[in-house]
Design a protein that fits this description.
With 595 residues, the protein is mainly β.
Length: 595
Amino acid sequence: MRFISTLGTAALTMSATALADVTITEIRTGSANAEYIELKGTPGASLDGYAVVIIGDGTTTGTAPTRSGVVEWLYRFAATDVIGSNGYLVLHNPGQNPNAPPPPALPDTSGAFPFTIAAGATDRPWGYQTPTGYASDTQIESPDNQTYLLVTGYTGADTFQTRAPNGGAGGQDLDTNDDGILDITPWTAIVDSVVMKETNGNTPGSGQDWWYASTLCGPYISRQVVTATSGTTVAGWDFQTTTNANAGTAAAAAPNTPKVFNSNAGVGTMYLDGANGASNWAQATELNAFTGTNVNATGTGTGGNGLDPAFTGLGTSSLALVAGGAGNPANGKSFTMKFSMTSVTGLNVSYATRTSGATSGFTTHQWAWSTDGSSWTDIDTFTPFTTSFALKSLAALNALNGAAEGYLKCTVSGAAGTSGTSNNRFDNVLLLSNAVSTDTVVTNYSGPVHGFKTSTGAWVIGVASTTIGNQDTPGADNVDPATYACGTAGAGDCAAAHNNAFCADSCCCTYVCNLDAFCCTVRWDSICATAAAGCAANCTGNNCPADFDNDNNVSGSDLGLLLGGWGGVDYDLDGDSIVSGADLGRLLGAWGPCP
């Protein structure tokens, strides 16, 4: 918060005294028809002269982009807008409009506002406009760094369609040099303010907005385990025209005739099954969501470029299979890779992929291996994501170890759509041998979908879901989050992810939180739930789990047992069902007499 110095003592004093009877108490946004802003004040008080102003970003492209301090959403209250008899007013996205005008305007299909507003609260939907002011035009942007202000005497430029938000592209710029200080303050006083925060830290990240209030809600912290594989590159294909300039125009009827793509990493050749035409594989330009999408095991991620084992950059083109009309003659088409495994072992395959639809696109990838290109053994099937490129890694394959010629084939099937609507994309196909996989926990920050003020006046993040959450209380008193500790009844199943910290089993909770403090300070997420697999071996009264030979001392004999069980499960100390370097570290850390 950097704008206070620009407001003046008088405005701050007025905000803190005469206007303190109206406050913002709950916000839900970024979820279409479920959006709302809740105000609390004196029952029957008129909000005439008040306005809700949301400051965010404007244009992010062009010769002089405006990235911060733009009025991107505005609602001016009328004299008839009064606080309800129970002390609340709910300003909300009305959802489905039953009186949509005829074409060319399109009716809204998002559904009605899904919450029941408490009795006695004023129900105030923000209005639809014609011909284009439907729910898609009136949603509040999220997640983002956004400052929510409740002000009086707003005199700023109003470029919106009366009360309809328009996403900020035409809003007034209040921070003209994007330095986090408001240069223009077109209001008499700020009555209340809160920031729905996406950025971690005190300054926004690259390309993100500044915020302009001191009360913060968020950011929401999430984590994921990203597995990176390193090893010797056998072959790889990125399908860029800069590395494969033939653009996929050569025909290919079967393996060994003729080649379509030479490997641009390592040594290998890829062959495509099917003649050119409506059902042909092609080196296709990325379209829409395909462009520049970065991926990991869940279909999201950031950073990097090139043929990376973590697939952190997809470039501008990919391999595409497009359906050929009724009956989808492209079903059953395949691509085959030929390469050498001489002097190398343990083949690992990873690739990025997506399909055009869960019911219309190609939904099955069948992988198989061969040493002659004609006799095949199936090894893996995969259903690709439909919303973004996702990373798929096959299980390590040892059947081709040392082979002078090795073959892998992926057969694609399952499409039910028509020509041009059913397709599958592949990118960054990478073959590694002698590979080693390492897991890294990646922490991400995002803006809360739902935030509310507690009885102490602090803002907290509600259930971070775009579905209806159990903490949503529009038009009623907010329910303070429950307080938990290890072993508290109702804290949640240790083996399942949940939104609060801690879990109900005291020993398991303590064990996991000693490994990962996040589980008892922020949230019991899927990483915590996975770690709980080690509770069975560590919550049996054994205070010295690394003492495998039960001589009350962790010593060389225990080390020998662990090394002898390497790769198995018998001497697993961290609960990940495999004896590895992590277990070795635990044993060495416990070295010496047992407590």
